[in-house]
């Protein structure tokens, strides 16, 4: 096949050893394009190319690296239309989401890391007193005399970073890894999700056009697990940044552990939304309702597990049902569509099986869960499951679809205990008119982030999870820390 997408390895566009496979539009079930199937050997070659490029790139002035990222941001913004069209076709996201939250966020992240930040900071000097106060260890190395020992902490690049990205956002997710990694002087190998890799190759084209040297950015895709595995186990790789399921993250962590490779893991979530009696119900319903609409619930930060205090429980269930029932499910290209398809027929079947499981467990399916009367596409109507308990599988396992479960509670302590009774701890939410209580509860929640009366994000705030929701933090300056090692330089005063 001559019209398929080629791999990007060592600055060259390379024919894949494994041929090509179709990328399917989940809204129409038509073929969007043909993605390359790399071999494990080609993944290894990409890692080797990144290793070869690392020395020169890591020594490049930060301002020069920033200029490459800035140019990439402008190229992405300039091609917003075709890039968003492709993202929508690959993922099934609505046109507005594809433009603003996928391609738009990616451009913003490249622009964000085009700002040079200090990579070193002073450490308070250590004063060494002469005489009895000086340790035997200091005396042994000739430091027994009075004096000052100065120190500097320096952020150094980790090396070669393998970035394994998620299917729900093939622009913002890889940009959030690649941009800070490159800003710090690392080189990268990107293994995109097999469902929608074509957008990631467009990102590589933008970086190439922006002047990224050969080997600094490499992209290899494939459906076979051995491609990603090769990009993790390669001796040329120093760090793995992964976004995806906890099951896969555990496997990657095991492999990284053998060679002490650095890790950044953004894994699953089952976000608890604790809604108190005094909450603004309109705000709570709109925030929780994003689970139905935003990426059709295919997002780890969604408030999928609603814990409603008894005094507001019935009204909240009623209003959520009305909200879900009013959302238009359909073609993401149409301006009034709110809920698009899920990524594949297999995933649709998985989401539907969870709704049926909820019924069997004793939950009430208040609304949704059925297939809308559409001829094509992998659609699921937003589903609301009430009368749930926290031990139900639908309340404990990540469904990754437009499904919300609602669980009642009586007092604050019970709500907090239920929220924390989870394997996950990515982002939780609190809705309350009592700001003091909201902050008090937020501090008690075992989650990497807590939204108070909002599902909004501050894009400079650290992002990551407790428990099985991940390891490490990124976003803003925290991403620069994530993609760097800290080196201490010490000298006598």
Automatic annotation (TrEMBL):
UniProt keyword Oxidoreductase, yes or no: yes
GO function terms (MF aspect): oxidoreductase activity, acting on the aldehyde or oxo group of donors, NAD or NADP as acceptor
Q: Tell me if Oxidoreductase is a UniProt keyword of this record.
A: yes
- Which is an annotated Pfam family here? Aldedh
Q: Which InterPro entries match?
A: Ald_DH/histidinol_DH, Ald_DH_C, Ald_DH_N, Aldehyde_DH_dom
Q: Which UniProt keywords apply?
A: Oxidoreductase
The record places domain Aldehyde dehydrogenase at 13-489
The UniProt entry's sequence similarity note says: Belongs to the aldehyde dehydrogenase family.
- Tell me the PANTHER family matching this sequence: ALDEHYDE DEHYDROGENASE-RELATED (PTHR11699)
What protein name is recorded for this chain?
Aldehyde dehydrogenase
Q: In which organism is this protein found? A: Streptomyces cellostaticus
């Amino acid at each position: 096949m001559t019209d398929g997408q080629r791999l990007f390895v060592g600055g060259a566009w390379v024919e894949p050893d494994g041929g090509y496979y179709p990328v399917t539009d989940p809204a129409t079930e038509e073929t969007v394009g043909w993605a390359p199937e790399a071999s494990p050997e080609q993944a290894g070659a990409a890692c080797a190319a990144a290793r070869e490029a690392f020395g020169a790139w890591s020594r490049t002035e930060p301002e020069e690296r920033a200029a490459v990222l800035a140019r990439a941001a402008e190229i992405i913004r300039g091609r917003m239309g075709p890039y968003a069209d492709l993202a929508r076709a690959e993922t099934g996201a609505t046109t507005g989401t594809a433009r603003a939250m996928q391609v738009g966020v990616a451009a913003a992240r490249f622009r964000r890391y085009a700002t040079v930040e200090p990579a070193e900071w002073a450490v308070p000097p250590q004063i060494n007193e002469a005489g009895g106060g000086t340790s035997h260890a200091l005396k042994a190395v000739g430091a027994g005399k009075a004096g000052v020992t100065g120190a500097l902490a320096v952020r150094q690049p980790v090396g070669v970073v393998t970035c394994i990205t998620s299917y729900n956002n093939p622009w913002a997710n890889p940009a959030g890894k690649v941009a800070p990694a490159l800003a710090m002087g690392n080189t990268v190998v990107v293994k995109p999700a097999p469902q929608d890799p074509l957008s990631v190759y467009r990102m590589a084209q933008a970086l190439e056009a922006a002047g990224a040297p050969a080997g600094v950015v490499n992209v290899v895709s494939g459906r076979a697990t051995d491609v990603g595995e090769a990009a993790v186990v390669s001796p040329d790789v120093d760090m793995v940044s992964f976004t995806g399921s906890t099951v896969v993250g555990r496997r990657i962590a095991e492999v990284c552990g053998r060679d002490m490779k650095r890790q950044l893991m953004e894994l699953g979530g089952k976000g608890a939304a604790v809604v108190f009696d005094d909450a603004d119900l309109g705000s709570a319903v709109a925030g929780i309702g994003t689970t139905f609409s935003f990426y059709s619930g295919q997002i780890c930060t969604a408030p999928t597990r609603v814990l409603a205090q008894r005094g507001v429980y019935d009204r909240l269930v009623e209003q959520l049902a009305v909200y879900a029932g009013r959302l238009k499910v359909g073609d993401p290209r149409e301006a009034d569509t709110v809920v698009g398809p899920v990524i594949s027929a297999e995933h649709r079947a998985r989401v539907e099986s969870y709704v049926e499981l909820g019924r069997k467990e004793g939950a009430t399916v208040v609304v949704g869960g059925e297939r809308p009367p559409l001829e094509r596409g992998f659609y699921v109507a937003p589903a609301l499951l009430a009368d749930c308990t926290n031990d139900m599988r639908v309340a404990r396992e990540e469904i990754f679809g437009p499904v919300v479960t609602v669980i009642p509670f009586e007092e604050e302590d019970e709500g907090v205990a239920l929220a924390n009774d989870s394997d996950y701890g990515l982002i939780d939410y609190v809705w309350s008119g009592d700001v003091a209580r909201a902050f008090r509860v937020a501090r008690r929640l075992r989650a990497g982030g807590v939204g108070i009366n909002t599902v909004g994000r501050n894009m400079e705030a650290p992002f990551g999870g407790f428990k099985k929701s991940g390891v490490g933090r990124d976003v803003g300056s925290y991403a620069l820390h994530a993609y760097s090692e800290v080196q201490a330089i010490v000298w006598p005063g």
